[in-house]
Amino acid sequence: MAREPIIQVKNLVATYGSRTVLKGVDLEVYPGESLAILGRSGCGKSTLLRHMIGLSRPAEGEVLIKGQDINRISEDARVAIFRKIGMLFQSAALFNSMTVGDNVAFPLREHTGLEESTIQIMMKMKLDLVGLSGFDRFKPAQLSGGMKKRAGLARAIAMDPEILFCDEPSAGLDPVVAAGLDNLILRLKSAFKMTIVIVTHEMESVFTIADRIAMMHEGVIRAIGTRDELKQSEDPVIRQFFNREADDEEIDRDQYLNTITGAGG
Amino acid sequence: MSKTATKIFGQVGRRGLELAGQSREVGRLARETFYWMLIAPFRGKGFKWKYVVEQMVKIGYESLPIVSLIAFFVGLIIAMQSAYQLKAFGATIYTANLTAVSIIRELGPLLTAIIITGRNGSAITAEIGTMRVSEEIDALATMGLNPVKFLVVPRVLAMMIMLPCLTVIADLVGIFGGYLISMLTLDLTSVRYVDQTISALTFKDLFSGLTKSGFFALIIAGIGCHQGLIVRGGAEGVGKATTRSVVVSIFLIIAADVLFTTLFYASF
């Protein structure tokens, strides 16, 4: 692809204590595309996301957003970049002490010098967009799981971000609500030309939303490509994931014995 | 035998490293807090007065009844205990001195700090810890908003303003408690007691009390925020952090009190 990538991850290594979670990840995301990061639990996909949004500092390697290394630039430059990034957290992460309306208005109040009346209108527009008009005076605790996610999405897009990150958007939702959320994200993508990065393990979501899929396995990106490309892959790890097969449980008797007796394995 | 020794040394070493790590973290938090409190506002990065006022109401206004009540009771107690001792010498008038000086120099700041630790230090940890667990702090950070600026600075500043204020009120109410007991049980006139109280006190007594109180405020808010920010492991983690916040704060308050009292004792 000739276009300049909007996000570049270069040889990213991340460690938790003595455990290496990411073992040199390289990834490029292009403007306007939607990329799904797919993988089994514990493969490092959430860790990768945390590094892409600057919540964790890498042990090695770098993360570039619009060509700037987010871990090496000044606080001001960082704020300028993050104003244009939206993030939908797995738990929605709404501020529980504020009403839903104030949650959505919060980034606008903090980052723009807009008048309160304008902010109110923008807040109501965003809530309407996610199908929550009229809920602005509710507290997050009064909403259902799906509504919280949608409110979180409204807050994530409050600043009209160029990039939207979603961490497991459909986790914990019933299939109908999850499908609704997927459609919503798709609509946002086509309406606002956002770049979308989604971390998930739900194949259904991936197929609806993603232009490209990055398959993670044991701390590295095992394969990346369109849905059809990955479907035709011969790689057993990818085939297993796409065909929803369980691990073959081959038990090594000696090793098992060592594990349960605590002898050095 | 040698295995036990290794174990003990291992424990001590681990604990030591843990403590050193935590101290470093607290140091970093302190540096960031002072940056956002004292330097950033003058560089046009804004300051959150709204949140400071919100916290001041929680820490100051809402704590006023309980702080006053306890200070009043302690005033009663100190006056009675002093009078009990002084009666033997026929010097009950010095009840006024003992009550006023011990409350202003020591008990006012200390008791207020301990009450506020229990009431607000724990609340700060629980609040920030819950926000940590529910990813709210991460959400702030991804919006390009610094959690220290939004959460820590308002609490530290509000605490540093309100704790000395509460201490002054506690001092006054405590001294009034002492006055009341003396009027009721001792053969003293009101005018003499008040005169005696005023002549017993010097500016440096008040100064030493309020200086302590300022540092206690730093301890309560600083430890409260730090323990909240490092919470891990869901609701249980928040509970544990809250307990630890109160225990560590009270310990540090008493330790700081020893230090300051020694300093003031030596210099005044």
Largest interface: A-B, 26 and 13 residues
Q: Please state the structural category of chain A.
A: alpha/beta
**Form type of chain A:** globular
Unreliable stretches of chain B (pLDDT < 50, length at least 5) are none
CATH superfamily of one domain in chain A: P-loop containing nucleotide triphosphate hydrolases
Q: How far apart lie the N and C ends of chain A? A: 48 Å
- Assembly type of the shown chains? heterodimer
Estimate the mean pLDDT confidence of chain B: 92
Mean pLDDT of chain A: 86
Q: What number of structural domains do the residues of chain B give?
A: 1
The helix-strand sequence of chain A is EEEHEEHEHHHEHEHEEHHH
The total count of strands of chain B amounts to 0
Number of helices of chain A: 10
Shape of chain B: globular
Describe this structure in words.
The complex is a heterodimer of chains A (265) and B (268). By secondary structure, chain A is α/β, with parallel strands linked by helices. Helix content of chain A is 38%, strand content 23%. Chain A contains ten helices and ten strands. Chain A has helices at residues 45-52, 75-82, 100-111, 116-129, 145-156, 175-192, 203-209, 227-231, 236-242, 253-261; strands at 7-16, 19-29, 34-39, 60-65, 68-69, 85-88, 163-167, 195-200, 212-217, 220-225. In chain A, the strands form two sheets. Chain A has a six-stranded mixed beta sheet, with helices on both faces. Chain A has a four-stranded antiparallel beta sheet with strand order 2-1-4-5, covered by helices on one side. The longest helix of chain A is centred in the last third of the chain and has 18 residues, at 175-192. With 268 residues, chain B is mostly helical. In chain B, 85% of the residues lie in helices and 0% in strands. Chain B is globular, with a radius of gyration of 22 Å. Chain B starts with a helix and ends with a helix. In chain B, 40% of the residues are buried. The model of chain B has no long low-confidence stretch (mean pLDDT 92). Chains A and B meet through helix 2 and helix 3 of A and helix 5 of B.
